[in-house]
Amino acid sequence: MRTWYEDVVGRFVAERFPDATSVIVAGSTVRNERTASSDVDLLLLGPDGFLADGADSLAATYAHEGEAVEVFAYTPVGFERWAQRGVEQWRPVIVRMLLEGRVLAGDEVLEQLRERWAETYDRGPQPEDADVNLLRYAITDLVDDLADVTDDVERRVVAAELLRQVASLALITNHRWIGTGKHLSRELRRWDAVRAARLTDPYVAGDFDAFHAAAAAELESAGGRLRTGFTR
């Protein structure tokens, strides 16, 4: 059965990016998780010259037929550069779109790209010891701050940053990709729902003593506290 967005995207691409050779819809639209504010995430691939002014990459949001269409468009060179950057930052957004999105149009180049990046994506992050140690150091400081802080606003700010950092540490040390905003919590639950709940349930409830204990436990499982003698 043809979906509503196939026609919308088809007309959009024909109007704005007629030389695109691969069209992939990703995100909440294909997962049937759209909300009132959701946009249509669109990955476009094409040959050199298919983007304006000879660019090899474009990230832009367009209004089209009542929808916000968030476009990520690349030539082969542009995709390679930005995909590699996402992997190095442990957040391969466009690689996930490439592999998990719904293909509306594609060619041999698309199939080659999917084969090329699937192995990297399935392997997950491969952090260096220095990366892990830097996170451990930052989290050690945040754990101590949360234990000592008395101002309620400061406590909430520190707890929010601690949740972000400790979730990232837990994920990358278990070779799982991270995310930003709501996507970080989704990645955490996707990895291990029980361990995610140990962190997020007390945080949501405002039980900062229990959250502190859970964050300290995750830090310990990733190598423990790191402070004195650490060089960065």
Structural features, described:
- The structure is a single chain.
- This protein is an alpha+beta fold.
- Helices cover 57% and strands 13% of the residues.
- It has 10 helices and 5 strands, in the order αβαβββααβαααααα.
- The protein has helices spanning 4-16, 28-31, 76-88, 93-100, 108-123, 129-148, 152-172, 182-191, 193-205, 208-221; strands at 22-26, 40-45, 57-64, 67-74, 102-105.
- Strand 3 (57-64) and strand 4 (67-74) form a beta hairpin.
- Helix 7 packs antiparallel against helix 9 and helix 7 packs parallel to helix 10 (208-221).
- The protein starts with a helix and ends in an 11-residue tail after the last helix.
- The model has no long low-confidence stretch (mean pLDDT 95).
Name some characteristics of this structure.
5 strands; alpha+beta; five-stranded mixed beta sheet; 232 residues; elongated; 13% strand
Number of DSSP-assigned strands? 5
Strand content: 5-15%
Tertiary shape: elongated
Q: Main β-sheet: number of strands, strand sense, barrel status?
A: 5 strands, mixed
Mean pLDDT reading: 95
Q: What portion of residues is helical? A: 55-70%
Topology, please?
Layout lengths: L3 H13 L5 E5 L1 H4 L8 E6 L11 E8 L2 E8 L1 H13 L4 H8 L1 E4 L2 H16 L5 H20 L3 H21 L9 H10 L1 H13 L2 H14 L11
Parallel strand pairs: 2-4
Antiparallel strand pairs: 1-2, 1-5, 3-4
Helix pairs in contact: 4-5, 6-7, 6-10, 7-8, 7-9, 7-10, 8-9, 9-10
